[in-house]
User: Fold these one by one.
Assistant:
Number 1:
Amino acid sequence: MHTSKTHPAHGSQMIKASSNEMDKNQDIDNLYLCYQCGTCSGGCPVTRLVPEYNVRKIVKHKKENRIDIKNRFLWYCLTCYVCYERCPQEVKPIEVLHSITNLISKSGLAPSSLKEGNKKILTVGRSSDLTKFTEQKRRSLGLPELKTDVSKDFKEIAKMTGLAEMV
Amino acid sequence: MNLAFFLGCNVPTQVYNYEASVRKIADAFEIKLVDIMDFGCCGELTEAMDYYTSVVFSARNIALAEKENLSILTLCNGCFSSLNKAIFVLRDSHLRSRVNETLKKIGLSYKGKSRVFHFHQLMYDIVGSSKVKEKVVFDLNNVSVSCHNGCHILRPSDILRFDGPENPRKLEELVALTGARIVKPMGIEQCCGSVLSLCDLDAAQTLAIESIERKGKVDAIVVGCPFCFKQFDIGQVVARKKFNKELNIPILFYAELLGLALGFDAKDLGLNVIHKIPTDGFLRKLGVSNG
C-alpha cells in the first residue's frame, strides 16, 4: 500500500525517529499540524525588514527535515511571541525554531555574540558586569552592595548540562 | 508583604534607576523587598542555545527564593517571562525530577511553591489601583506620555496571564492614576528589537526607531523593561548619529513616573543618571528640579 511521506501520522513517526534529546525539551508536538497559512511570518516584525528570515519556511523545512544549519538567519528571532499567540494550529513556531537553534548550538555553531553573553553568565553569573564605576553610582543612589560574582552554581550547572562546551 | 527581590542581569548593572525607584515605592506601600545575594541570571539568554540549561538556571533562582518561603518580584520583562515559563514547564513531573537531579548537585531543590510577579503586576493586581491612587500626592497632568509594555510581560499569554497579548490595558490604567495624559500609539505595539541586536544591529535599531515614532508626539515614553529602555534611550542617540533623526523623547520607567507622583525627589529615583535622553525638559514641564 502506498503511503505518502508527508502524511501526518507517518510524519510524526519520522520526527520521532530523527529527534534527539534536545527536541523533546521543546513542545513541538503540533509541528505536523502546520498548514503553511503564513500567519506567523505575516505578523513577524523581523520578516518585514529581513525577508530572508521567514518562520513559516523554517517550520516547513523542519517538517521536511531539511534545515540548513549554516543559515545565519535562523538566529534572527526577536522572541516577541507574536507567532506563538496567533498560530491557528498552536504549532508554537518559536519553539520549533528554538529546537533547531539548540541542535546547532550543540555543535558549537551558535553566533559568537550569543556565546559571549552566555560565557559572561558562566564567568560572573550575570550577562553584564557589575563594574567599580557602577558600584560607586549604586552607592550614591543609596542602593545596597551586591556580589560582583555569583557564577558558582552557573558554572556547575553548565558543566553538568553541556552548556560549558557550547560556549 | 515580603517578596524576594529579583534583579537579574541588567537592572543592577545598567538601569539601577529602575531599582532605586522600585525600592522607594515598595517602602511607601509597606512591601518588604528581601535581597537574595546569590540571585543571578534568570536563564533567558540561554534558551536559544540550550533550553534545558535555561530551565535549570530559572529553577535554581526560584529554589533560592523557596528556601526563604518567598515569592519573587521581578523588574525585567525577560526575567518575568523566563521564570514563569520555567514554572509552567516544571509542572511536568518527568522534567521536574530531571531538573532536581541536576540541582541536587548544587544542594538545591525546586518545589514549585513560589510565584513570580512583575512590578507592574504587583501594582495592578496585588496593591490595586485604589491604593495606588490614594498615595498619589503630585498630579502629573502637565505631561503627555505613551506606554510601551514590551513583549515579555504579555506573551506567551497562556503562561504569563497578566494582560491581553496584543491589546494590553493595565499599564495605561496604572499610568492614568498619576494624572499623566495618555497618548495612544499608532497601531499595535511593536517589539523594541532588542534581541535582534545580537545578530543584526541595523535591523534592531530600525525596529526601535519605528516603535518610538509610532508613539506620536509625547513628552515621554513609559516602559517597564530594561531592554526596551535601552533600545529606546540609546536608540535615539544612534538615530541622531546614524540616521540623522532628532527624536529626543525621554524614556521613563513606570516606576520612575509613579515615584514622581508619590512625591519622591527626581534625584532619588535616578532620573538624572543613566538616561541618555535627558529628562530635564520633562521635569521642567512638571515644575520639578532634577538634582
Number 2:
Amino acid sequence: MTVSPRLGMAPTAQRIEVTLETLLDSVDLAENIVMRVAEASGFDEDDVHKIGMAVREGVINAYNYGNQHDRRKKIHLTIELEPQRMIVHVVDQGRGFVLTEVPDPLAEENLLRTSGRGLFLMRAFMDELSVRPAAAGGAELIMAKKLPQTVSDNGRRQPE
Amino acid sequence: MALQGTCREVGEVAVVDFSGKITLGEGSAALRKTVRDLIDRGHRKILLNLADVDYIDSSGIGELVSAYTAVRTVSGEMKLLQLTRRVHDILQITRLFTVFDVQSDEDTAVRSFR
C-alpha cells in the first residue's frame, strides 16, 4: 500500500491517495481508512458505517470484476474532503463498465442472483454515485456524501 | 471478527448460531460450508440464527441467497432468525425480505417448519 496525503490543495480541501494491491485484504483496509476519515470528518456512527460499506463494495467491485484478482494490477483509492462533502474515487485497471447496463438487483427476476448488489448498495448509502472510464483505462467509481457540518476557512468545523 | 457457526438440533430443525461478519472471504466461505455440510448430512430444515451477526456485505448477501437456493433444491426449507438492525436494513433495501422467511422468536420459528 502506498499513501500520499496532499493537504491544502484548496483553502479547505484535503486529499488522501492510497494505492492498494489487488488482494482480499485491501477490501478491509480501504474500508477502515475511509471509516477513520469519515469519523474524523464528523459523520455519525451510522453514516460512518454506510460510507465504509459503500467503499468496501467499490473495492470489492475493483477486486472481483475490474482487476479480476490479477495481482499485477492496482486499485487506486482517493478520498477528497471538500467544504460541503466527502468524495471517494475507486479506480481499477480492468475493462470498465457502463452503470446503466448493470442489471437491477431489485427486479423480480434478479432477486435470487448471488451477485450484482454492490453498486446498488453504494448508491443506497451515498448521496451521489457515478462511473466513468479511468484515464489509464478501467473504471473510476466516484461516490460522494454530504458532510454533516460545514468547514470554515480556518479548517474548524461549524454547525450548518 | 471472522464468522463462527455453532450447530444444534431442536427437534428436526438444525439451528445454526452464527456470530461475526458475513463478508467477502472467510465469512462467506464459512456460511457456505456450514449450510452445505448440513445438507450433506441430510438436514432439510435449517434455521440460521443471525442475532450476533452485525455486518453483512454484498458477498454475504449473495451467500445467503446461494444457501437458500441450495436448501430449496433438495426440497428443504431455510429460515432466518433474529436479525440485527443493520442486517435487517440490508435485507429490506435489497428486497430480500420478500424471499427469506425471517423470524424473531426461536420457538415460533422452529414450529413454523412444515
Number 3:
Amino acid sequence: MNLMYSCKKVAELLLLSQDEPLGILQRAKLKTHLLLCGNCRIFDAQLHTIRDLVKDPDLLDDSIAEHHRQPKK
Amino acid sequence: MMTAEIESMPPPSGHAAEQLRSAEFAELRPRLIRHARLLVLDTSVAEDMVQETLLTVFEQRQQHSGAANLRTWATAILKNKVADWYRSPKRTRVVSIEVDAPDSGDPLDNLYTAQGEHAAPVQVWQQPDAALERQQLKQVLDQCVERLATLQATVFMMREWLGFEANEVALRLGISAENCRMLLHRSRLSLRGCLQVRWYGKGRA
C-alpha cells in the first residue's frame, strides 16, 4: 500500500470532502500529506474561501449598509 | 392650516432609513432573479418565485421595518421558496439534464504533472479586510458562478447556497450520485480557477 498520496490525489479528496465524509484511512493519509505540503494546504484554504464567500449572506448587505451609513467625505 | 402644520413638521426619524430601503427595494428584483435562475432551470418558475418573494416582502415589510437588512430577509424568503419547490412532491420533474461531455477530461489534469505534483506553486489567497473590497470579491465570485455550465451552476448553488446535502441535490435533480459528484468537483475547480484569474491574479494576493 502506498503510504503517501500524490498532490493530485489530495486535491481530489479535498474536493470530495467538501461534499462527503471521507474514510478514516483517507483522512489520516490526507492529514499527513497536508502536514508536509504547503501547496496542498493553500489549495484546501482556497476551497474553503469559496465556500465561505457563498455561505456568508450578510457580507454584501452589511458592507453596503455600512457604506451608506458612513458616506465618504 | 392643518396641512401647513403637517408640512412644517420635521420628517419622522426613520425617514432616511426608509429612503435607503426603497432604493434597496428597486435593486432587489434583478438580484433575486439572478439567483433564482441559477437554481431553477425553468425560467418562468424562477420568475414566479421571485414575484412571490417580492410580494411577501412588500406585504410584510411594516412588521420587519426594524429587522435586518431588506435584502438579507428577501434572500432568505427566496431560499425557502426554492427549497420547498425542490422538495415538493407535486413538482413535475421536467429538468432538462444536459450532462457534461464525459470525454472532456478531468480539469485537475491541467493543474498537476503526470507524477501528480503541482504544475505550478499554489498562490495564497489573502482575504480583503476592507468591507468594500470583500463586496467586490463576492461580486466577482457571483460572476464566476454565472459563467459555469448551467447544470454545474445549479448543482453548486443547490449545495452551497441552499445548503442541500450532495445526495439530496442528486435526488432532486434526478441525476446520479456519480454525476452530481463530478459536477460539484468541476464547478469547484472552475470557480477556483476563475477567482484566481479574475481576482487574485490581479496583484491582490
Number 4:
Amino acid sequence: MTRKELDPPNFQQMTAGASNVAVYPHEEFRHAAAVALASGGITRAVTLKVNGPARQLDVDTRATLLDTLREQLMLFGTKKGCDHGQCGACTVHVNGRRINSCLTLAVMHDGDEITTIEGLAAGDELHPMQAAFVERDAFQCGYCTPGQIMSATALLKEPCGPSEEDIRECMSGNICRCGAYPHIVEAVKSQRAPAK
Amino acid sequence: MIPFEYAKAKSETEALERGADPRAAFVAGGTTLIDLMKLRVMLPAALVDINQLPLNEIQLLPDGGVRIGALVRNSDLAHHDAVAKRFPLLSQALLSGASPQLRNMATVGGNLMQRTRCYYFRDTTYACNKRQPGSGCAAIDGFNRIHAVLGGSDHCIATHPSDMAVALVALDAVVHIKGPGGERKVAAGEFHLLPGKTPHLETVVEPGELITSVTIPSSPFAGHSAYVKLRDRASYEFALASAGAALELKDNRIYSARLVLGGVATKPWRSSEAERVLTGATAGEKTFHAAAEAAMQSATPRRYNSFKIELAKRAIVRALDNATQAQPGRQV
C-alpha cells in the first residue's frame, strides 16, 4: 500500500510495538490498514517470513510484495525502479528463488520465506557476493545494486553456462543505468565455483 | 488498482467455483495480471490464487511426448533436461523470453494467456478495441513499430508477444482446459484467436475456465528444431520478429516441417505457405529463402513496421539453418 493508492493522501502514523527487524527500531508504520480502509481497500492478514522471523501483517490485497517490504516493514534496501517487472531493482528471493517483488502481491505469499538484501549479511559480516561487489567496484549510484546482488547470489544456484556471455545473459534481468555491468560480471565471476 | 477480494483456491473444484464469479480472475505468476492491474487495463474485483493447485508436474510420456502442468514455471520447463533434449525449440523459446526473475514466476498457462505489449492497449487514455470494443484502434494510424504485419484487421493490429506459444504451435501441442462444463482440449494453433472484428476475444478460454496442462506429442521434426528471436536488445526484450522451425531431416531432405512466427502477427503464426515450400525440398539456403518469401508474401506493412517483413525473412532463414545444424538429443 503506497501513497499512490490514496485520493486524497490521508494516512496516520501509528507507533508500533517492538520490532525484531532492527533496521529502524524506533518506528514502524502500521498505518496501512487504516489507509486501506480509507481508500476502500480490502485487507487480509498475512504471515511473511522475512530474513528469518515470521511477521504477521495486515495488508491491502492490492499491496505488492515490494511496497509491503518497503513501506510496512521498513526494509528500504529493495528498490522500486519501474514497478512493472522491467528493471529488476526489486529482485528478492522467495523460497530461495529470485523474483520481481513488484509484480506479486503480499497476500500471495502467506507463509513464504522471503530474503531481501538486508538478509544477506550476517550481522556486520558482508555476504561474499556483497564483498565482491565492493572489492570490484561493481556499482556507482547503487540504486540497482541490491537487485543485482540478489540476482547474482541466486544465479550461483541456477543452471547458467560457464562463459562471461552466460553470466551476462543470466544477469540480464537487472538493468544498470550507470553502466556498471563490466565489474558486476567480474564480481559474479569471482564467486562462481570453478567449472568442472 | 481497484480494491479486490482475494482467495487462495485449495482445489480445482474450489478454483472453478470461485472462477464462476464474473468479477473474478485467476492469478498464478501474476506477471501479466499485476502489471496490467497497475495500469488499470485489467480490473478484476476478485482474485482467485491458483498457485496451490497440483498442476506443476512435468510428466514424460512413454510414447516420447510430455505432459506439462499449467503451473509449471517457465524456468523449470526450460531447464528440464528431457524437455530440452526432446524439444530444443521449446527450451530455446522459453529462455529467450523475459528475464530469469520473470521466468521463475511465469507459468505455462499464464504465458499462453499473456496480453499484447501494444502501447495503446496498455495506456487507457488511448482508443483500443481490445479494451473497449468499438472505441477504435489508436495503433493503426499511430506509432505502430511493434505491431503486426500478419493477421491484423481494421480493428486491431496488436502483436502477440509470447515465445513459448510459438514453440508450442510448432510442436503440435495440445492445451487442456477445464470448466464448469467439463474438460476439453484445443490444438495450440487454435488456442489464440485472430482479432477480426472482435479483438477483445483473444483465446478460446471462456470465463471461469482453467488451463490444466499442455501436452506435446513426440514428432519426427522436434529433434531438428530451433528458435531465433530478433529484437532491439540482446536480451530481456520482446521480439520484433522471431521464428520457430522444426524439420524432419533425412540425408538433407526435408520430409516434414513446421515454421511458426512470433513478434510479427496477432497470434503465433504458423506458415503453411512456408511449410509447403519446405516439405520434400533439400535443406539449404535456396530452400530456406524460398520458404521465407512464401511466409511473408501476404504480409501487410504499416507505416512504422515495414522493416519487419525483411527481418522476419532473415529470422526464418536463420532458424531453418539452426534447425538443420541441431543435433537431435538422444531419447531420454
